[in-house]
Structure to design on (202 residues):
C-alpha cells in the first residue's frame, strides 16, 4: 500500500508584531508527522523576526518543507489545483488583511489566501493591530463574510500561563485545532471544578 499523501498547510508570516506565533506554528507543524508545510515570509516579516526574535529569514525557512518567495505569484500554491487543507497567516498585518479582503493578489501571500477562499478551504488570519480603525474592522468583516476566520492572537488567562511561551502555545494550539491537527501545546479546559479545588463564593 502506498503511504497516504501528506496533509498540506500553507503558512505565511507577515510584518505585524508577533512573529513568534508564526515561528511556533511552523515549529509545531514540523514536529507533526504527515503535515507538509509551505511557508512564505514577507519582507516586512524579516524585520519583525529580527527585531523580536533575533532570527534571520533562513532560520525560519529551514523549519518548512517547502519555501516560496512572496514575489513568486507563479508558485504551486498560487493555483486552486494545488491541494491543501488551507492557510494560516501568523501574524497577519493590516496591509495583508486589506489585500485579502479586497482580493488584491499582487503577491503570493495575498494570492494564496485568495485561492484558499475561492476553493472554500480554511483560511485563518491572526490579525494584529491595536486599536483598530474602521478600515481594519470592515476588512475583517469582509474576510469573515467570505468564510475566513479572523483569529487575533489574544492571550487568555484562565489557564494560568506561567510564561510568554505558555501564552503563545495556547494560542497556537487553538489555531491547530481549527485544522484538526493534534497537539499537546496546552491543557484543555475541563471546567472550573477541575481547574481548582477552591470555588468562588457566589
Ligand atoms: C517592528 C514592526 C512592528 C509592526 N507591527 C505591526 C502590527 O502589529 N500590525 C500591522 O498591521 N503592521 C505592523 N507593522 C507594519 C507592517 O510591517 C507594514 O504595514 C508592512 O507593510 C506589512 O507588510 P506585509 O503584510 O507584506 O508583511 C510593523 C512594522 C514593524 C517594523
Amino acid at each position: 500500500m502506498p503511504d497516504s499523501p501528506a496533509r498540506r498547510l500553507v503558512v505565511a508570516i507577515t510584518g505585524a508584531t508577533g512573529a513568534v506565533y508564526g515561528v511556533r506554528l511552523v515549529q509545531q507543524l514540523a514536529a507533526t508527522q504527515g503535515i507538509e508545510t509551505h511557508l512564505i515570509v514577507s519582507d516586512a516579516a524579516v524585520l519583525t523576526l529580527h527585531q523580536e526574535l533575533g532570527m534571520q529569514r533562513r532560520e525560519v525557512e529551514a523549519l518548512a518543507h517547502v519555501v516560496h518567495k512572496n514575489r513568486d505569484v507563479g508558485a504551486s500554491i498560487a493555483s486552486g489545483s494545488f491541494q491543501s487543507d488551507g492557510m494560516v497567516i501568523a501574524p497577519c498585518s493590516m496591509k495583508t488583511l486589506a489585500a485579502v479582503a479586497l482580493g488584491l493578489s499582487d503577491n503570493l501571500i495575498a494570492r494564496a489566501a485568495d485561492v484558499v477562499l475561492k476553493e472554500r478551504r480554511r483560511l485563518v488570519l491572526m490579525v494584529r493591530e491595536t486599536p483598530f480603525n474602521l478600515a481594519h474592522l470592515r476588512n475583517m468583516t469582509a474576510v469573515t463574510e467570505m468564510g475566513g476566520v479572523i483569529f487575533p492572537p489574544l492571550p487568555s488567562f484562565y489557564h494560568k500561563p506561567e510564561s510568554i511561551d505558555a501564552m503563545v502555545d495556547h494560542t497556537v494550539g487553538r489555531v491547530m485545532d481549527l485544522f484538526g491537527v493534534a497537539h499537546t501545546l496546552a491543557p484543555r479546559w475541563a471546567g472550573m471544578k477541575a481547574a481548582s479545588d477552591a470555588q468562588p463564593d457566589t
